[in-house]
Each structure stands twice: as structure tokens, then as C-alpha cells.
């Protein structure tokens, strides 16, 4: 009697070779390391994929490109549902999650590298104008100015009530105020960039932690299922061992072999020995 060769069941998304596989969504063949089984994904993401492709099962393989696309779509739906809007900052966070890139940046270094000469000069003047060095030096200059003009008397270049000094002070204040405002405006822009970066980092961390919790819960559930299956297999093996032992004892009794109980049964006292023939 000849045996009929049967092929093993073929699951959607599995390739013919061990190193190659087929994406169950696109149908394109790619390397096996670029494919992820559907059962390895967190339940919420797997349900989102099954909603579009109900013919897939837990053994179906999905390419990392399609997985990144569905991760992006899934996070977009979460943000729209929770925040009611989807801004440019949210889009950058979603893209960083899909590409698995870092989103944190050093705003100070990036902002300082883009400063022009005028902006550097305004920052320096604003920093010096708000220091004790400026106050002390400016007070010394005013004191010397007033002392010289008082000492010279009527022939001084700026006699009392120091009209020229008032004009100089007014000009310094008029020039210093716009320079300080320019520096404050740049600092405010830097603070906005820092706040935006902090928001993106916090949002990405929140989403990643949520996904990590879902993945851990999924893995724990899978581990419990596998442990239950292993325990069931062990119980079946123990039952088979007991049945085999019972069958061997039954065959031994049927063959007329004395049981261990009869061999170990003690003799009663006062029983005469058997008569010899």
C-alpha cells in the first residue's frame, strides 16, 4: 500500500523558505527578520489590523513597514479620540514612534548656533545691562561727571543742573530698552521651543508606557496559556503512565504470577508443616 504525501497546512503570510516570508497584507516577499507574527503584537493593535483584514489569523506575518503604518494610524486615532485634535506636534511624535527615533533635542545648542551677530550683541548688552557691574560702573561715571562739573564751577562743560547728563541718561535708556526687549523676545522664543520639545517628549513617553503595559499584559496572558497547556500535557502523560502500569499488572495476574501480597503473607502460628510424600 503506497502512502499519499500530504503537504502541511499553509498559513497566510508564510513563505516557502526559512529565510524568506510573505507579508499577509501586501503579499510581497521579504526577509523573515522583517516580518512580525500577528500574535506578537499587543491586542489593541492586532484588533485594529484585523478590523481591516478579517481573513488573517494569529499566525499571519506582517512586514515591519506595514506594522509602522498601522502603529501611526492607531496612535493618530487615540490622539483624536482623547484630545479632539491632531496638531503638527502630535504628528511629529507619531512619526518618531513609528520610526523608533528619539525626539528629545538640546534646544539651547540648536538655538545658539542660529544666532546672528546682532542677536549675539543684543544678548550681551542685555546681560551686561542687568548686572551689578553695569550699575556700579554707571554710578561711578555719573559721580565723576557731577564731581568734575561741580569742581569747575561756572566754566564747566555741563554746569549744574547737569542738562547734558540728563540728555545722555535719556539716550542710554532709550537705546537700552529696545535692546533688552529684543533679547527677551529671543528668550521667549527659546522657551516656546523648549516647551514644545518637553510636550513631545512627555507625550511620546506616555504613549510608549501605555503600549508597554498592553504588551506586558499580553505576554503575561500568553505565558499563562502556555503554562496551562504544559500542565495539561503533563497530566495526560501521567494518566497514560498509570494506564500502562494497570495494564502490565493485569497481564501479570492473567499469566498466573503470584502477587506481592501473597508472597509477603505471614504463616499462622501452630500450623503443622506439610507432610512429606
Describe the structure.
The chain is mainly alpha-helical. It has 3 domains: 20-101, no CATH class; 107-206, no CATH class; 215-248. The protein has 8 helices and 4 strands. The strands form 2 sheets. The chain has a two-stranded antiparallel sheet. A hairpin with a 6-residue loop joins strand 1 and strand 2. Helix 2 (64-83) runs antiparallel to helix 3 (88-99). It is rod-shaped, with a radius of gyration of 44 Å. The model is unreliable at 1-17 and 259-263 (pLDDT under 50).
Describe the structure in brief.
The protein has 277 residues and is mostly helical. 65% of the residues lie in helices and 4% in strands.
Tally the structural domains. 3
Biggest sheet layout: 2 strands, antiparallel
Please tell me how large the radius of gyration is: 44 Å
* Oligomer classification: single chain
Distance between the termini: 63 Å
Mean pLDDT: 76
- Give me the number of helical elements: 8
Beta strand %: under 5%
